[in-house]
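Incident log entry.

Two folding requests arrived from the same account within the same minute. Monitoring flagged them as a possible duplicate submission, but the sequences differ. Recording both here for audit purposes.

Request one:
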Amino acid sequence: MFYYKVEHWDEIDHETRQESGILSAKDYAHAAGRVAEYYGAENMISMYLEEWEDVLTEDEILEGFEKADVRE
């Protein structure tokens, strides 16, 4: 399981956006490829990846987002 945070160009609103989330991948290369595919490699400005445990409780997810400075 990986946490990601990405800064990308939004082609619809024509502005830079930051988004974050979690995804399942077997390693960093696979995780980076999935994020780049989702947002479009040509639109990526920056990406941060952090490996998390495979099984997470809700509290662990919320705590991880808080540590990673994710805000609603």
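Request two (distinct sequence, not a duplicate):
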Amino acid sequence: MGDCCSKGSRGRECCSNEKCGSSCYSNHDESCREEDEEEHEEFTHHLIEAADCAWMEVLKDKIKEHILATQGDRMAELAKIVSEANNQRWKHKMEKKQGCMSFREKLCRFFEQYKK
């Protein structure tokens, strides 16, 4: 990256990009600089997107705080109801699966008797 920070870089700061090497800026390769500009624009766009996401996360956290402060007891009750219902659903689902597996095993044993 030697020439990246030299006068050939035309005042640009050093970057970790491999394209930002001595052949790029010291030779004033126009196509290389265009690709570099596109990468910087893309990086800028990603930073703006990250800021938008962070803003939404902060907003969501504040909304959660408000809900808990104003509806904490009701949310705890609702969470309990939903959690218990989900637990029952999975319990029945697993019992049904176990019943199916038991049925399959019985069928396999039945048909294995006729192989012998």
